[in-house]
Amino acid sequence: MEKQYYEQGDTIILNQTQDFHIQHILECGQCFRFEKIEENVYQLIAHRKKLRIGQEKNQITFYPMSMEEFTTLWITYFDLERDYGVIKQQLSQQDPILQEAISYKPGIRILRQDPWECLISFIISQNKRISHIQQVIHYLCEAFGDKINAEDGSSYYTFPTPQQLAKATETDIRGCKAGFRAPYIVDACHKVIHGEVDLQNLYQLPTSQAKQELLKIKGVGPKIADCVLLFAYGRYEVFPTDVWIQRMMKIFYLGEEATHQQIQQYAKEKFGNLGGFAQQYLFYYGREKQITKKQ
DNA sequence: GCCCAGGCACTCA
DNA sequence: TGAGTGCCTGGG
User: What radius of gyration, in Å, describes the C-alpha atoms of chain A?
Assistant: First the structure.
């Protein structure tokens, strides 16, 4: 992306609103530690920071933010160097359904999140609504993360590190309303701390091997592994297939009888390295419009 | 009160 | 190997 951002006091202003919509980015189901303050104004906690992101017609503001912090952390986080225009064009060209899904929420971008936080968040996500997932994560952060006092006098909690979370017993984690997922979180802590699953090393591995590593953790199946690969490791060729995506693929492309495997195979052939992006447009579209049968 | 939600593990054929 | 079922919890 061309350099379309500049510093103004303790705010960074981004003049690139074509392929960036803060609501689409945060509410498309890829991340959970955000809060809507008002229309098009959100608070986000990531990288141990809390920031306020506002979007008006032609500009997006990040506050509080220095140019240095923006360039070292947030350009990567928001994937700002990637030209989503090209991706959207490629996907739209081959398919009217995707074209519709993309034009419905054109401002989606795939965030590059912290693998550990992403892993735990998606373990929590099974059988839960987003508000509930957010609640459990909040409890975990409050109980085991660091409390940070912001300059404006407010405070917030960081996402607990594996070491911090490992101090929790299964009972503690159940106390955070994690329910049957509590032992899964304990297992994730154990395997990560003892190096049985090396999250840093996954960056170096081919996607299929990285997936095998993630699957070693209890409570992590193909869907959650794919979500982590996509939202933390930037493996855009994966196609996380949950119930919504399954519905969409059956309704729009493959028919009711299609198996999970056929869906994966079809997505691989059709979307290739853009599978992750296609998935996210389709998912958000389907869920928002509650598409549960052929229109 | 009942049903079910952005899956997974476990069991049993 | 594949299908069926239970799971914490809270919101509709």
Answer: 19
